Amino acid sequence: MPNGPLTPLGRQLRSVLISLRRSQSQLEAPQRHASGAATAAAAAYQQEEGAVADAGRATSSQYRPWFGEETGTETDHKLEASTDSRKGRPSRAQINRRARVDRISEALSGAGHTKVLPAWHSSPRVKPDLSHMNPRSPTRWANYKNTTARHQDDPIPELAQAREPKLSRLLATYIHYREIGQHLLEADWTSNFQPTPQDDVLLKTKGLTVEDLDSWASLVAMPDSLEAAAVLQEHIKRKGAASVPLFLVSFMLRRKTITASALRILIRAASQVLEHQTSSSAESLPGDAIFLVYVRLVRHARQVWPASLASATELLLRFLPRIANSGQQMSSKQLEQSTFQLNKAMRLIAMPVANEPYKSSGSQEAAIVNVLRFMTEHEPPFGINREGYRAVIQVQLAQPKTTRDRQWAELKALSWPPWKVDRTAMDADFTRESHGLSRAVQTLFRMYEAGYGPQGWERVASVYSGWDHDLTPTIQRRAVGDGRFHSGAALWVARIEVTRTAQEAWACYEACEKEGFQSHHDVLFAIIQKLDYEEERLAGGGTRIRAERNTNEPGLLPGDMREVEPLPPSTHLYTYTTRPPPSVHEFYEQLQLGGVALGGRCLEFIVTRADSLRQGVAYLHESNAGHFNAGTLLAPDSTYDLSAVPVRLFASFLELCSRFSKVPLSRALPAALSGAFRPTHLSGVLEGRKLTSDHALIHAIDLLRRRRPAYRPAWNAVLQSLGRESSLGNLWRLVYTSSSTENLELPAGEEDVWRGAIVAYRLTRRVLSLMRETNLDLDVDGFLALCYATENMALGCFLILRQHQFEHLAGVEPKVGGDPQSYVGQAIKLLRTSSSISLRLKSDFEVLVGEDSSRSQSLLELPRLLHVPNPATLHAYIRTLGWLADYQGLLDTLRWMVEFEAELGEKRAVDRNGEVVMRRAIIAVRVFLERAWLPEEDVCRSEGSEDNGDGAGRLSQCIYRLSTPAPTEVIDEAIQLVGSVDDWGGWPTDQEVEGYCDNERFKHFWPGGHHQRP
């Protein structure tokens, strides 16, 4: 006990408290998400727990009121009465088929740990649970739904008390007991918990103790996935892999989201547990148990760490049933099971990843190659079924064109269909068989040769591969295959997406109208994208894309980019259409007149890409009126439940608000929504300030604060807006002048932008703190936005203080002292603490890349980094450290880049202009180490300044530190590090430095604010 042993009076009081009935809300908590048969099964399970406890504890009846209002005897009589009319008592297998109760999840739900529950626990199940369903059954999901509906009202008979104990049930029981101790008595139940005789035998047989149960209960209840994974890792290190059952690792992987750092620990823990259980047991683990862990690992890998797909696949291939790995003769049943699992594994690998699906196709290909190698080297070889072939094709569709593919694509006519046109006699050697068949088409042919005829999915894949099913050519286009390949309109979606111009796409849509698919949401999404990209092209100059492709980017061909091409130079090459392609808004109005309401991806896209804030809100209101009240997103309070809004649509609205942050919300609402929005002053957005919700960006941050979504694009949309220079001027006015939005739309001057950068940085850090409270880490996009916000802040502070120094030298007294909240005082405060700001940024970078410190202890070959930053992110990170004058940080970054050059080189290879941007990052290192953009008189002016305690002295010290170049030894080491990597091109030349400094960012430092250097 934490406060000493119980007295006799205390023991009597505890007995009385335990016997008290709990409130109805507490009684219903464990069954909050159960209904029908599931509820009945949960009640039977709870009754069973009380019966099992009776066998080992004399006072176990004291806990029975926690499970329900009825006493155990009353419930027993009812159950007995319900089974008297039956011919016999149903078996345990029959009861399990009627309804399944996840004991651990129900225990955690009753204890209030809802954040760690699987996604399906709080919502209707939308896919089968492979924990107890046969994955090889083609009708598993239909059978489950039919059985559940048929037995929904069946009474559940009493379960037999004498049965084999299970560790999962024992863990759930322990969670129940611990919850009672914490909420009723606040007693030390770890020392008082006594397992039943059967459970005690089970624990001793497994070499486990109650202490292990307590550790398991603690880690499954931790809301932070990384903290829970770290506790599991420490437990394995302290007591060995034998102290962790496989179901515990599997249950932790059932969480809806986990971080990449946690996933790396769980992959390593799963390999250690499987290694112990397969090596210490006479028989191998069931293949389904190993495969279930793999399924959950791959799901999280696709979400947060695609580079680990090959490592997770290695785990499956290593720990499949031992007889499959040993090369012994397999029975037909074992061969069938392993064949199904391996083909299903390829299917899971090929599913689209959450971020950068095209750039991650290399990781998917490596994982699938490992599976194929394992299948062919096994004796007898495993066969590839239709699902396996489709997985291979799906990955090939997402990969860039090969050299032969590009040669073939360059010969296609500008008219439609794009037949090959020979430009020289040598082009006749490029035939369809030698150059016109992509790797995906060749795999399709191998699939047909194996006896799998073409179906709808294969026809769609063939269109993306460059050939329609009638053998007319199309444009080979990179595609990420998903469930849309199976929809009835998928073929028309593919035909629209493989077009090059908006005219070709519109002609295809008109043909689709004749087939009756014109209102299908996938078709609408495809044509809306084409129309929007045409508007974007026209806004950028009309012929910009083709000019860039023919000059600066010779490797960029139609199908390699989302943008559309301009019309052919000659009208006889045009594609005929009965009416010209409309704009997106015109097309939307046509759909409205036809009674077609947009939803799903279509609505998300047009809201995000709207031309104005008013237009985007109108789309939201008009198209989604039947699904939820649009006022939900506009009310600046908790009147509405934000979770009713689909999370992707929620993110689209946040991005809309972030794009038009200069427009007050109250002026952008349609008349129908004018009463739904009431501007208020928000005190929870920025500490010490009350900001008005009429500011669109402030309203977006408040929505994030209230909902806390686990969907990262919602957070990144706001972070990216805070890092854009166009959002800064009106932020300063909002914070430092008044809470009114009357002057938000006024043009912002340079000083407004500098001051707004300080506000944007504070808001960025506020958003990051909200993300951490939601257990979300920054991804590459979020970190890039953080670098932009920090760079803007450092540059703004530098320019503010530099301007005030000039005013001081000119005899104008700057307002340095006085109000500490003034923008000058804020700038001095931030720059004097720039070392801590730089330290926080470097800490965020370390979390992002996640260097593996336990690599030598791993049984699997895991990637060394969680995220490999692309050249643009490295460039922004180097610039930010440079503006903060963190020379040691720049040197450490160069050392890190040299150490992980292999990973950085692979990343550059898949990025457009990766080599160019990487060279720019190297040039930035020299520019910021040498402070090459500053006139020499700037350093001399600040040199020798002393801090006498007044504002002017502090100002001069800050400017001197930011203007002083790096020490000579730091620059010399940087030269050596850059020269050690041949691909970096050596130390930047003076011409490269001068060209880099001829940039908008540096113009303020030259006399008169011009680009010309003195």
Automatic annotation (TrEMBL):
Disordered, as annotated region: 67-98, 119-141
Domain of life: Eukaryota
Biased composition (Basic and acidic residues): 74-87
Protein name: Uncharacterized protein
Species this chain originates from: Saxophila tyrrhenica
